[in-house]
Input
Amino acid sequence: MHFRLKIWLENDNQPVFGTGLLCLLTLIGQYGSIKRAAEDLRMSYRQAWGNIKKAENRLGVKLLIKHVGGESGGGAQLTDEARQLMLKYDNFLQDAEEAVKNVYARHFED
Output
């Protein structure tokens, strides 16, 4: 038997940030493309962009800088605020998982 932990951040009872958005932003940072990141996650561009816009509105910060297409094509890059939030959330998640792992061991491992 083992445990699973799912943690997300909320603002006014509305989800703001979790592992799904972390994965999406990580891939956007890697590819420089919302479309390619969405494809990797098997979601539509519209869904990916909608998730980002919802989070931006609820957080009150921009997460992406979009570049409109042209000869070299469009793209997107993470803002400094996005990078900071991603790092903080990842560190928080690791600490929370370690804490829960210890509590789990205390209660379920003999």
